[in-house]
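Example record used in the benchmark description.
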Amino acid sequence: MAKPAGTPITYFWRSVALIVTLLLLSSCSSIQFVYNNVDYWIRWKANDYVSLDRTQKGELRAALQSFFRWHRQTQLPRYADFLTQLADRVDEGGLENPQLEPIERQVEHFLNSASENVYNLLLPIAAQLSEEQIDELQSNLLKKDQKSLRKWQRSPEKIQRKRDKQIRKESVRWLGSLTEEQKNLIAAMVSKMEYNPLLRSEQRLLWQAKAMELLRTKPEGYLDKLRSLLVSPEQLWSPQYRQAQEKRKQQARDLAKQILSSTSPAQRHHLSKTLREYAQDFRTLASQ
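Model output (structure tokens):
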């Protein structure tokens, strides 16, 4: 599944919001270990963006504890049921003509539910940021964007190869060994996917400028406006960037359908088994 487009800080908080369906479904050997320790990672990662004082750190810790308590009790069982239903569909032959749009809508619903909760908890902390902290945050966002842009410009071929490797790795995790046909499908998609790092950087800077302006000026209803930017960064996209993102999303969807339609019985068994293992992990976590 493609990562939501936006700014570095948008990626960060949206990853928190979709911590299970996107972040925890990773190559890590133990979902339970990651989930039980991810709040430490979040607090450590937040320090890359802004230095919080002791009071703010305490409030961040409390907010994350509240979020994960809610998430564990109310969301993990829903994720487990969802993955079990997907596994049942795989067993019933649902990959012959896979329909991915309903799955995308359900995942988006999970994201929106978690986003609403986490933003309600974290935005009051953002409202406490001093001018110095806002300056630091804006500076770090700019540095990360420039670093990403330089990295791409130095070696676009290397990044393309890395993407091919990442997609293969994710596919292997879900399906087991890939056929040569499937490997070729991935390579073909990666080679055709257009990417404009300058355009992406422009959109990031536009988002950052708007978000920092809201934090600095604090107009009436600014937290709601900031929440809107976090939830829907695409509201600031230019027509050109929106078209490019939609094209990339459709290319990724087409690739997924092609690969799923080409799966062997052994690969379908591997997929079903993996989905059920994740579902069981989520149920175990929910009961703790």
